[in-house]
Predict the 3D structure of the following.
Amino acid sequence: MSPGRLRIPFLGRLAALLPLLLGAALLVPAQVSAAPAAASPSSAEATDLGLRGDYYRMSSRTALDFASYTGTRIDNSLYVDDLLPTLRAYAGTTDNVAVRWTGRLQVPADGVYTFYIKGDNGFRMSLDGASVIDHWTTDWDVQTTSEAITLTAGLHDLAVDYNQGNGGAYLHTEWSGPGFSRQPIPDSALHLPAGFAPADAKGTVATTGRTATIELPSAVTAVPADAAKHLAVVSAGALWSPTVARDPNNASRLLVTPGKDDTPVALHADVRISYDGKGGITTADGDLGPFSVVAQNNSTWYFATKWAKDVSADNALPEYPRPQLTRKNWQNLNGTWQFQATDTFPRRHPTPDAPRGNWHSA
Ligand SMILES: [Ca+2]
């Protein structure tokens, strides 16, 4: 595949790319780019650098599925010491997350290559649709090595899947090839998928915290019934299960409504609204591409007890005991307490002596 073939007009969509790039810059600490100046790619368009990263929540730690879409961003490296900040920003959680990176790998010269991946947790990689490394498991810190693979110079379709259960999260992807020894794949060898065209979108959350709108550059022409599965609203660790429809009062706007069990977006909370570009939504400009934007949050909603409405900064409750919180059978637990295991303890824990001692609460 000739790199020249893939040259596509870029300036026109630079504006659309900016939110993704800025989002990455603002929300994610500098990622490790440990690659030395390795095999210099022949010709590459700097503006197409990076991989498309689609983030999902898994249905469980062991499911290793892509159950709920949460966000899309441009990731510039496959050698990252700490993925937790990115997972937190784009999945709203650092537990039970899966990522799918897609794009193209710039192979510098004809020859035989070997790939090496180590991570926490599992991963798998394919080139031109063929599996290169398959370690789609729940373990961690396992170094894997591919077979020797003969590749031609130029761009090859690349896909890397990654899963994170809990705890630490990293991915170290390396290669060796003709004329260079094993080293991280340089970021300059990673290119966005052909035709990757993010949409220019602006998100806003209403004062109720229970509606979001997405402003698009042109009129919405179709919103398929299941489009909402491809759209994510993430805020304060919560992920909406929304419905999406065209705003009857504004043709170029989408209305996003949370499910009945979803938590409203809270006052001052960060909100990210994303669309993977695969839900079939169309506008007068054609298929709506992917986007991921930090929404303007106008919500005034916040989680409060039933007493919150009765107090303010000028009308604070007096010191204890607070009359509203008094219980009939209140007992203060402050002080030193003695404890001893009950008779059932030795039967369940046949150790020589059941524990006894003091604990202190203040
Ligand atoms: Ca982990």
